[in-house]
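Would you mind writing out a protein's amino acid sequence and the numbers that encode its backbone to help me picture the idea?
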Amino acid sequence: MLARGALIGWDEELGTTMRRAGPPQALAEALADLGNMAVALPLLAVAMALSLLRSRGRSWWPVLCYAVAMGLMAPLVVGLKAWTDRTGPLGGGGYFPSGHAATTAVALGSALLLLYAVLSRAARTSVWTLVAALVVGNGLGLVWRGYHWPLDVAAGWCLGVLLLAAATATAHRRPGARQLPAGRQPPSK
């Protein structure tokens, strides 16, 4: 797929069709802007601060795990863009994967996962739906504005999911905690 392959023609045709059928430019631009660091990072920072305040600092490990995921996202995207050097809808190279799509997925996903425990069951469903809608809306905005092809966006989402999964798995393993084999219980005190 990367820069050549069976999906390239289909992806470019779909992207062109989506751009022609897109909403007004102002809406598409607003959605695309959700992936800007100036928008995504403050949202994540607020969630991190709320998590730390609510736990009186005891949630530092998950906060650190999600911060590392966010920090790793940019160099991974830059490396993948240099490696693939895919031409974008507006010309030029380095469009695959979409850094804006990955930023939105990692920042909003991390914020949600950090605050998940404090949300009611009903609020969890609503917030998951909102986050999913914003991430998808961001991807659509990127394609509608001609900043990315659809598969660039999908690759950004996939990278975001991988980073979130790794951060979540790591967040559930406390540093210094001894890991027991499956089925074993810690000795009672």
Summary: The CA atoms of residues 124 and 146 lie 33 Å apart. Residues 25-171 form one domain. The chain has one domain: 25-171.
